[in-house]
Amino acid sequence: MKPSKKIGSKIYMILLMIFFYLPILYTIIFSFNSSRSLTRFGGFSLRWYEKMFHDATMMESIFYTIAIAILATVISTFIGTITAIGLSKTNRILKAIAEQVNDLPIMNPEIVTGIGLLMFFSALGVRKGFLTLLLAHIMFCTPYVILSIAPKLRSLDPNLADAALDLGATPWQALTKVIVPQIMPGILSGALIAFTMSFDDFIISYFVTGNGVNNISILVYTMSKRINPSINALSTLIIVIITVVLLLVNIIPIIKQKKERKQHEA
Length: 266
Known about the structure:
By secondary structure, the chain is an all-alpha fold. The chain has helices at 3-30, 47-53, 56-88, 92-107, 110-124, 130-155, 160-166, 171-182, 184-199, 203-208, 216-223, 230-265.
C-alpha cells in the first residue's frame, strides 16, 4: 500500500472514531455540568446526578429496565439454548422451516412487531404493564440467542452426545457436561446480545407497556421534549452499565483460560 493511501486510511479511521464516540464523550462531560445549559459548560458539579437519584420516576425506570433486561436475558437464553439444541437433532426440512420462522422477528420492522403485540395483548384482554413488557422482550430476544448458538452446534461432532451416552452418561449429563460447555461461547454471545437488545429497546416497549411501567428509553423520550440536563446523567449511567457488562463478558473468559492453562502446566 502506498504511503498516501496509508495516511488517508488512518485519517478516515480517526474521523470515523470521532463521529461515533464524540457524542458519547459530549454526553458524559455535560452530565457533570453545573448549569442547565446543554451547550455551555459552567463548571464541574454532581448536581444532575443528585437530582437523578432523588427522582423517583427515574429510579423506577432504571429498576424496570435492569429487571426486565436480566429476566428477559435469562429466560430467552434458556429457551433459545434448548430450542437450538433440539433443532440440531431434527430432520433437515423441519429445521429449515424453524430457522425461517426464527428469522421473521429479526427481519420484521420493530414498529410492526410492536403494533402486532399491542393488538395481540388487547385481543386477549391482557392488561399492559410489567408482564406484557417482559413477554415482549423475551419474544424478540430469543431469536437472537438461537441465531448465536446455531453455528456452534453445526461445528460440533454429531456423535459427541452418543459417545457420552455410550460411556455411561445420562441424557442430562450429556447435555450439561458435554454439549453445553462446547457451545458456551455461543450462549454467552446470545445472552449479551439479548441483554443489550432488551436494555435499550424503545419502539416495542413503547407499544406494550402501561400502568406507569417505563424503561429508560421511554423515559428519555418523554424527557427529551423539554430541556432537562438529567438526561445526560441518566445516559452516562447507561453507558457505564453497558461498558461494565461488556468488560466482564470479555475479561472473565480470558481469566478462566489463564487459570486452566496454569492448572494444565502444573
